[in-house]
Amino acid sequence: MTSRRTVSNEKDLLEKDDSDDRSPSALEKSNITPAVPAAVIIKLLGFTAAMVGGPIGVYFLTVDTIFRGNSTWAGATAAITANLVLVAYVIVAMKEDQSDKLAAEESTKKKR
User: Cα separations (Å) of 69 from 10, 72, 73, 99, 112?
Assistant: First the structure.
């Protein structure tokens, strides 16, 4: 049988961990901020609730009150409501993207 012997000038795994030859970035505190801002998550949750609750609520509100039991028209109204929520989400997302671009352009102008 052969065994591996450690050469005295080599460091084993534990000694390598204790060394102080770390890079400067390893000594800095890590950035633990979330990748997505909280405002974006709140908007997404709001539109998710609107996408679930809006069409269902509109259906049950209109099936007996406005359309007097006609579920076809109430379903169509619920589908229109879902599409309106979707269009509103796309518009908000596009405006948010434009505001991010404008903020980035202003910060590059200030650096010059």
Answer: 84, 9, 9, 46, 66
Q: Cα(107)–Cα(52) distance, rounded to whole angstroms?
A: 39
Does residue 18 surpass a pLDDT of 60?
no
Closest C-alpha to 59, from 47, 49, 71: 71
Percentage of the chain surpassing pLDDT 70? 76
CA distance 12 to 22: 17
Residues counted in the chain: 112
Distance separating alpha carbons of residues 27 and 56, to the nearest angstrom: 53
Question: Which residue type occupies 59?
Answer: Y
Between CA 82 and CA 75 the distance in angstroms is 11
pLDDT of residue 105: 80
- Amino acid identity, residue 4? R
